[in-house]
Amino acid sequence: MIFMNKRNKRILIYVGFFVLLLGAFYLLLFRDYDFSKSNLMVRNDNVQDFSFINQDGKKSHKEK
Fold it and tell me: Which residues contact 51 (CB under 8 A, 6 or more apart)?
């Protein structure tokens, strides 16, 4: 850190502060709430396969 001038030191402090802030946010967000126990209703459990319609009006889908 011999070549650390005032500008680089300030940038390093800002980056460190925002990394800590983001880490604290995710820690508080995911610490208490278990998303797997959600009681939200499933809107559509029967989703059909998706396919594009080309310019000729025909369905084009890629098979795996």
Answer: 59, 60, 61
